[in-house]
Amino acid sequence: MAPRGASVRDEGNEMSTTARETTADAFERRLSTTPRSAQERDALIAQPAFGTVFTDHMARVSWSADGGWGDRRVEPYGPLLLDPAAAVLHYGQEIFEGLKAYKHADGSVWTFRPWANAARFAQSARRLALPELPAEDFLGSIEALVAVDLDWVPGADETSLYLRPFMFASEAFLGVRPARGVDYLLIASPVGPYFAGGVKPVSIWVSQDYNRSGPGGTGAAKCGGNYAASLLPQQEAYARGCEQVCFLDAATGTQLEELGGMNVFVVHADGHVETPALTGSILEGVTRSSIITLLREEGRDVVEGTVRLDDLRAGLSAGSVAEVFACGTAAVVTPIGRLAGTEFDLTVADGATGPVTAAVRSRLTDIQYGRADDPHGWMYHLA
Ligand code: COI
Fold first, then answer.
1. The model's pTM
2. Structural domains counted in the chain
3. Least crowded by CB within 10 Å, which of 140, 227, 315, 323?
4. Which protein residue's CA is at the shortest distance from atom 9 of ligand 1?
5. For the region Disordered, what residue ranges are annotated (predicted)?
6. Residue 40: inside a domain, yes or no?
7. pLDDT tens per residue, range 25-68
8. Judgement on whether residues 135 and 219 belong to the same structural domain of the protein
9. Residue 139's domain is classified under what CATH number?
10. 327 CA to middle of ligand 1, Å?
11. Nearest atom in ligand 1 to 261's CA
């Protein structure tokens, strides 16, 4: 199990855990009697959109305050039987994760830094007063589900099997307290690029009216509530002709925090790179930490600090800021081509993909898709 307080940056822990036991064999296979035919499946994964198609099965583990974690199983994918009084429907006690399984040229299937996701899932659980799922179960559920639905891992360029672990309060009880009955599930979805237009620069609306999180809040946890809070500002972004929203810190309203579901990086013309520090209200992205490592390896100064909106605007206007990009598991590395707010509308990198953004994207995806060596031991063999 990941040690308490383990961080996605804890690489020593990550590398030494690749050989650890998982509970994959403890997942009972209760297989679907009506799986999609090979023909139907192949048609579904031929040109996958993001998060619209799901595999034939899901993995599941249930928890009770009295019995702890148990009943590990892989069962047919399908609607959940949920009591209308289930606490998650009322108080939002829920967390999730996102990672991917990649098919390499030799047909083998791998995932990327899953122990980092397991550690973050445990951190999120603590913040939402949910039980911590042992990392061996987190990994075990992935191994068990991917083994059963292996044929759903797509092989075309820029495609993968997106893995969505989540946990929620399933106890039927309307009192406001941590639930005594909880379910953990893992579902899987063959995906292509997160943005419908493929990999191309996106436009960002900087929200100056709404915050995603505040000091002492749940911003560092990957919980549904943070994403719910981002939806109205996201709508505002659409109304302003932008594709994504960027949030500022709640305390001063002057510093960049993160996008609705991605971390953000600023590349300066002198070569150094900045990204908002992990202040407690920002998600500690696995892709974020990997990019910091990769950029530092190529000799760049990467500063995790305060990224002030005023400085960014001035830098874009003066040309001292060369590129801005967003990153996350789903969106990988996504160039930002335009940054707008109530008093400004600025083009970034002439609206194109800058060279630093393109290079770090290639470096990362080359590792993930097995086209380059993996010097950090980030890849985890699934099948
Ligand atoms: C991810 O990058 O995996 C995310 O969770 C972002 C978003 C799809 C919610």
1. 0.94
2. 2
3. 227
4. 261
5. 1-27
6. yes
7. 999 999 999 999 999 999 999 988 899 999 999 999 999 999 99
8. no
9. 3.30.470.10
10. 10
11. 6
Residue 320 shares a structural domain with residue 182: no
What's the mean per-residue pLDDT of the chain? 93
- pLDDT, tens only, 271-324: 999 999 999 999 999 999 999 999 999 999 999 999 999 999 999 999 999 999
Distance 85 CA to ligand 1 centre (A): 28
Torsion from C-alpha of 131, 137, 139, 142, nearest 10 degrees = -100
Q: Does 3 reside within a domain?
A: no
b (16+ CB within 10 A) / e for 265-274: bbbbeeeebb
Q: How far is the CA of 330 from the centre of ligand 1 (A)?
A: 5
Q: What is the pLDDT of residues 87-144, one digit of tens each?
A: 999 999 999 999 999 999 999 999 999 999 999 999 999 999 999 999 999 999 999 9
- 82 and 220 assigned to the same domain: no
Token pair 């490592």: residue: 293
Supply angle C-alpha 68, 69, 74, rounded to 5. Answer: 160
Residue 296: which domain range? 202-366
Q: Is residue 56 part of a domain?
A: yes
* Residue with tokens 């009192």, as numbered in its chain: 175
